[in-house]
Amino acid sequence: MDKKLNILTQNVANTALQVTPIISIPNPPSAIPMGCGIFLKINEDRYLISAGHLLNLKDWPNLMVPGADKKMVWLNGTVITSYKDSETDNPIDFGLLKFSTRQNKHFINGSFGFCNPSNIIVNHKVQQGGYYVIAGYPISGVKKTSGKAEFNPIPVKFLTYPLSENKYEKYRFNPDHFILVKYQRKVAPFGSKKKQITKELRGISGSGLWYVPDWNDRKKGVPKFYLVGIMVENYKDKGFVAALRIDFATEVIKQFFIYSPFEHTKFDFVDKVKNLYVSEIK
């Protein structure tokens, strides 16, 4: 079973990585990776979801993501973020960009896909004993190819499980806002008793936290899995990482844009998200 679970986890992670772009700032002839995001498409509208300290009001006009034909695409559009700059002190750490219509053509036939609303669970009830997957590109694993204007990104593919409910109170996290999952620096690979040091998760912010409800419920060999959070903080010294619930992003889409297929989140969004910054580059 361990070997089979390993293969299925790889299938989930590899599929999740197809909608997980690296966010970079230009540094000709290459670029500097800053973190990750999640591509989302609703009808013809394209979005980028990430952590607010990455997609903040000050820095977002200088950020780029991969597009088609190995080209980089500026983040032109409407940004809504909880961070004024990267140093903003706000536990609610998220940013959302709706790409301007004219930017859509730059993603057609590109190497990245876009997840759709059916791949997202709002108001997710954390399943104790359930399986969760982190898939992204920590900046500690993104290396520049020598002599070339390109990167060699090394992804992290991490199978984990949630912390018990009492840990939220201990570490002062609101379970309505966050999902905390285990992070072990030393783990035994599937089928092995010898522990290895896992990849450092520095710069994993903006990647997705994905929930796998049933390994046997598959489509084309890949278990069905769902986006439930965005990675925002690494507390490796305490043995866990924190994801902000995806509800914050889906609620912003529902309240600020014309069309949204998502249900309302059950927590008081207006009360908890008091400072949002909005800007636009057409």
TrEMBL record:
InterPro entries: Peptidase_S1_PA (IPR009003). SUPFAM superfamilies: Trypsin-like serine proteases (SSF50494). It comes from the Bacteria. This is Serine protease. It comes from Brumimicrobium aurantiacum. The lineage of its organism: Bacteria, Pseudomonadati, Bacteroidota, Flavobacteriia, Flavobacteriales.
